[in-house]
Amino acid sequence: MTDSLPSMPDNHAVAAGTSPVTDAQRVPVLDVDNVTKSYSGEPPVQALRGVNLAIGQGELVGIVGPSGSGKTTLMQLMGTLDRPTSGQVRITGLDVATMADDEVAYLRATRIGFVFQQFFLAEHSTVLDNVADGLLYAGIALKQRRQRALDTLDLVGLAERPHARPTQLSGGQRQRVAIARALVGQPAIVLADEPTGNLDQATGQSILALIDELHRAGSTIVVITHDSVIAERMPRTVGILDGRIVADTGPAAGTNSCLRPSGFLAQPPTHAALDATGAPVDLEQPCPPPSS
After folding, report:
1. 99-157 confidence digits (pLDDT tens)
2. Which residues contact 34 (CB under 8 A, 6 or more apart)?
3. Which of 84, 158, 180, 284 could share a disulfide with 35, CB 3.0–4.6 Å?
4. Taking a C-beta distance cutoff of 8 angstroms, is the pair 5, 106 a contact?
5. What is this structure's pTM?
6. Domains (ranges, CATH) in the chain?
7. Would you say 263 and 282 are in contact if contact means Cβ atoms under 8 Å apart?
8. Sheet with strand 112-116: strands edge to edge
């Protein structure tokens, strides 16, 4: 198995616009290139149809679509939980299709964080151990895992509950633990699938506020949702319907993203993108070639 992957640029410096954007930094954190996904059957199901999507460092993106639109399939491919029928998925410039299964597993463990609607916490483990388990496959010693877990719990506002068990927490607190587990490994990107789906409205709003705060601190986050109200509060909104991207408002100002041309772009970008010097950026500029 691969013991290490190429280093990543500093997300925080890029998000803050404190240094010029280099070609390496402009490589999207996530690049979905002309991806299709089919499932066998009579007739076969075409879940995704030629999807192109690039997400840059420091972006907060909402992907929205109704049930059956393909958004869950897209999330699984973005998270390397499945492989496309055709096309390419690249994480920090690395083409998943060229990697062995154990290399993909290592990539997923070190560069992708997941937040799910159902939390998926180990109920008989403490909050601290649930978060520290996010580093199990990163080759980090137990003492360091627990210290990083404590630091991340502080980041999500749960520094006072490290020894509690999930059953002793509210739904909102359990989702904060899940977010901490996703963040503890300092991944290149966090994929949040319906993160407020099991929460009441007030608690859901507090989780969205936390996501906003983490984004401002430099995290790259994608929220997958059926709720257009949630998606539209994100700096960038991507609409999916019948397996196609039908709308993309484009990267927000100050992010490092580049967009692949999409024949299904239904509306123009709502944010004027600027480079590190404050000059306008062409949102349709091609993505740089992936790293080898």
Report:
1. 999 999 999 999 999 999 899 999 999 999 999 998 988 788 999 999 999 999 999 99
2. 50, 51, 52, 86, 87, 88
3. 84
4. yes
5. 0.79
6. 56-82+94-245 (3.40.50.300)
7. no
8. 112-116, 189-193, 221-225, 60-64, 236-241, 244-248
